[in-house]
Amino acid sequence: MRDLPPLSALRAFEAAARHLSFKNAADELAVTPTAISHQVRQLEEWLGLRLFERHIRRVVLTKEGAELFPSLREGFDTMVRGVEALRTPSAQELLTLSSTVAFTSKWLVPRVPAFRAACPGLDLRLHASDETVDLRAGGVDLAIRYGRGAHAGLRSELLFQDRFAPVCSPRLGVRGREDLGHHPLIHFEWHHVEDATPTWNRWFASAGGRYRAPNGELRFSDESHAIQAAVAGQGIALVSLVLVAEELASGALVQPFGPELEGFAYHLVYPDTPRHAERLGPLRQWLLAEAKVLEARASGVRRPARTRKPGTSRRR
């Protein structure tokens, strides 16, 4: 038997964490904000942990809440896909796109409605895994991979170059590098480390200094958890600017200073055969177009000036 808290409490927490708002979660679930608050409190009591810091007109995930949210979001997304597959069996062509867990959740999932509008004749299945899939074995039609772009026997097209920089919540009031010593540094632990891996050690070397973390460190094995911790104001994170493009555009995160570190690039990879090229044409063109939109948006995101208050403004 699975020992789980009430599903209604898990659902209320997932919606509130996704919106960072009890009111917006209540609107989505067609209940009152008081009901959302009650369900979240029930879950906190069941776990014996605080999941949100409650402030006037806003809520912020705690460290424990940020750790719980991604797994619940993925679980509910999986249930929705399973139910929809049974309710509305489709005769449309189904294409499966594979990428890393972080890239799927941070970049692909928010763009699914745009894909459906642009490609109404196609159904898309997202396969999220940090393991490299065999595209020749079937089951997966194409992949977005992070690296140097060389894949024997496969077609590889550049989507965009990745860059890494320190980011944080504007609530921290970080203005310059001198503020690094006042906040914890958030790390994403890379599975494979090489000279080009964008780590804090490499960033400090690029900035002309030596690594130091006098106010502590937070380490995460999942990139999306590190990003969520930064949004929650738990420290300064060195993360992919591709994966936080939406947060930077909305003002949930700011990039207060440089330098930026160049990472590898994201490539669209698929079998190099005429049959695949024809089947994948609409999805491929949509992905390339979305990549151009991202690059244009990223170039328009400005860092807050040091003389002003901060405001809203892959490996594998």
What's the short version?
With 316 residues, the protein is of the alpha/beta class.
Structure explained in plain terms:
- With 316 residues, the chain is of the alpha/beta class.
- The chain has 3 domains: 7-65, Arc Repressor Mutant, subunit A; 73-160 and 265-298, Periplasmic binding protein-like II (D-Maltodextrin-Binding Protein, domain 2, 3-Layer(aba) Sandwich); 162-262, D-Maltodextrin-Binding Protein, domain 2, CATH 3.40.190.
- The chain is 40% helix and 21% strand.
- It has 10 helices and 10 strands.
- The protein has helices at residues 7-19, 22-29, 33-47, 63-87, 101-108, 112-118, 200-206, 223-231, 245-250, 274-300, and strands at residues 52-55, 58-61, 93-99, 122-128, 142-147, 154-167, 185-188, 217-220, 236-240, 261-271.
- The strands form 2 sheets. It has an 8-stranded mixed beta sheet with strand order 4-3-5-10-6-9-7-8, with helices on both faces.
- Strand 7 (185-188), helix 7 and strand 8 form a beta-alpha-beta unit.
- Helix 1 crosses helix 3 (33-47), helix 2 crosses helix 3 (33-47) and helix 4 (63-87) crosses helix 8 (223-231).
From the structure above, extract its key features:
316 residues, globular, alpha/beta, 40% helix, 10 helices, eight-stranded mixed beta sheet, D-Maltodextrin-Binding Protein, domain 2, disordered C terminus
- Could you give the order of the helices and strands? HHHEEHEHHEEEEHEHEHEH
Name the overall outline: globular
Strand order, sheet with most strands: 4-3-5-10-6-9-7-8
**Can you give the helix content as a percent range?**
25-40%
CATH architectural type of the largest domain:
3-Layer(aba) Sandwich
Q: Count the beta strands.
A: 10
Mean pLDDT: 84
Domain count: 3
Per DSSP, the total helix count is 10
Might you state the CATH topology name of the largest domain?
D-Maltodextrin-Binding Protein, domain 2
Q: Kindly report the name of the CATH homologous superfamily of the largest domain.
A: Periplasmic binding protein-like II
CATH class of the largest domain: Alpha Beta
Cα-to-Cα separation, first versus last residue: 36 Å
Could you tell me the strand content as a percent range? 15-25%
InterPro entries: LysR-type_TF_proteobact-type, LysR_HTH_N, LysR_subst-bd, WH-like_DNA-bd_sf, WH_DNA-bd_sf
Family: Belongs to the LysR transcriptional regulatory family.
Keywords: DNA-binding, Transcription, Transcription regulation
GO molecular function, one term: sequence-specific DNA binding
